[in-house]
Design a protein that fits this description.
Helix content: 40-55%
Strand content: 15-25%
Number of strands: 14
Number of domains: 3
Oligomer: single chain
Radius of gyration: 28 Å
Structural class: alpha+beta
């Protein structure tokens, strides 16, 4: 017979005195579905409620795989053990929405609901978001490992910007360590509102995950896309020689940055996902709001029945990165639209949302032709298009001046906007 563990079911109850019907999730420490039903029935004998029926019961993990609600179910499952056999979730009147499921729980609540004892959880922090991450982790008395190895270079910038893996259940490492709950609270306080961490759940433990994370510090990147992307670092941080192929070259992969993962992970191919997750089965992360699709935080679980994972170094395909580029472009256009609403509301209120989106897109197309490079420059150019009724987009004198002047196009556009902002009413009329 299998060892006891947390089993979960949806149970329908009735209040003995009034006959009112309720439903709730129930977690029971048991070995089988039959034992689940016996234990919950026995438990309710001394309560005001009577069991009408229990829907199909599963182990907590299997229940989550079938029905979701991982945070709520995980929190209940952690509460049952040999000394506390039954845990009832919130009672809901029959037909009512499950408020515990429908309501968005916090990121901290989601982390605390994970079954960290069965499947350990680790935080991976991006040193680039901190003034000095190694010192901050030392001062906070965290158990951590750098994901960049020091091979004698003694480069201060490399040391303080390196990502670090933090053990959250310190009691698994030392007797005097903090509990999982206390460490989670401390690490979230350290992170603050920065998108500076990704939380990994890995059944195989600390050493397997550490080795895996070291193996994805660098990834193979399509050579033909390198010139189209900003902030791509091609220098290895572990002293090794970055391998290249005919189509790809090695670049730094900031897998501890929640914004980066939010942009990349949901568009990966099956083989890429398998290689990226490695021994882990779940990631939780809290990127900036613009990357969350109106959610407070994001979760990614390794899908079932994946194709065979990539071998060797993680290799990002052109298809995956084109998807990232499209997502970045969508967000950038929204930021430009928001900038126009903020900077010139007297003009944007005259346009429908569709008309404003069309203006931003047309400004972007012309901006590409005149050599604009930054989102800031595109925003200023769109502002000029807005206040001129798009006339600037077709004014050959202005376009030729920007193209032919030996100066960054973004700087020229900034100068034009400043001239307009500082101009007198008479000068504006002359323009």
């Amino acid at each position: 017979m299998s060892n006891p563990e947390a089993w979960v079911s949806d149970c329908h109850l009735t209040l003995r005195e009034t006959g009112e019907e309720y439903r709730c999730n129930v977690a029971v420490w048991c070995r089988s579905a039959a034992e689940f039903r016996n234990k919950i029935a026995h438990y309710l004998e001394s309560s005001p409620y009577k069991l009408l029926w229990a829907e199909e019961s599963h182990t907590a993990l299997e229940y989550v795989r079938k029905h979701g609600h991982q945070a709520v179910i995980g929190g209940m499952a952690r509460k049952v053990h040999p000394g506390h056999l039954v845990e009832l979730g919130p009672l809901m009147q029959a037909g009512a929405l499950d408020a515990a499921v429908e309501e968005e729980i916090s990121f901290k609540e989601a982390l605390l609901a994970l079954d960290y004892k069965k499947e350990p959880v680790f935080a991976v922090l991006d040193g680039a978001h901190f003034d000095n991450l190694p010192k901050a982790l030392f001062d906070g008395d965290f158990i951590s490992r750098s994901l960049y190895l020091d091979r004698g270079e003694n480069d201060p910038e490399q040391i303080i910007t390196a990502p670090h893996m933090v053990i959250l259940n310190e009691q698994s490492e030392k007797v005097t360590g903090r509990s999982y709950d206390d460490t989670v609270e401390a690490i979230l306080d350290l992170i603050g509102d920065k998108p500076a961490a990704v939380f990994w759940q890995c059944p195989e433990g600390v050493d397997k995950l550490y080795k895996h994370l070291r193996s994805i510090n660098m990834v193979l990147y399509p050579k033909e896309m390198l010139e189209e992307w900003d902030e791509v670092e091609t220098e290895s941080h572990d002293g090794s020689t970055p391998p290249v192929t005919d189509t790809h070259t090695m670049v730094l992969f900031r897998h501890a940055d929640a914004n980066v993962i939010a942009q990349v992970i949901f568009g990966m191919t099956g083989p890429e996902i398998g290689r990226f997750f490695g021994p882990a089965n779940r990631l939780l992360f809290e990127p900036d709001p613009e990357w969350t699709d109106e959610k407070n935080w994001l979760q990614a679980e390794i899908p079932e029945r994946l194709p065979e994972a990539q071998k060797g170094v993680l290799r990002l395909s052109e298809k995956t990165l084109i998807g990232v580029e499209k997502r970045q472009l969508t967000i950038s256009r929204k930021r430009v639209s928001d900038y126009l609403h903020e900077s010139a509301p007297e003009y944007t209120q005259k346009l429908s949302q569709k008309e404003l989106e069309g203006l931003v897109l047309k400004s972007e197309q012309v901006g590409d032709k005149i050599g604009l490079q930054t989102e800031y420059g595109f925003g200023l150019w769109a502002l000029l298009a807005l206040i001129t009724g798009q006339e600037v987009l077709t004014n050959n004198q202005v376009l030729t001046h920007i193209r032919d002047t030996h100066q960054l196009s973004d700087d020229i556009v900034e100068g034009i906007v400043e001239d307009i902002a500082n101009a007198s009413p008479e000068e504006l009329e002359a323009l």
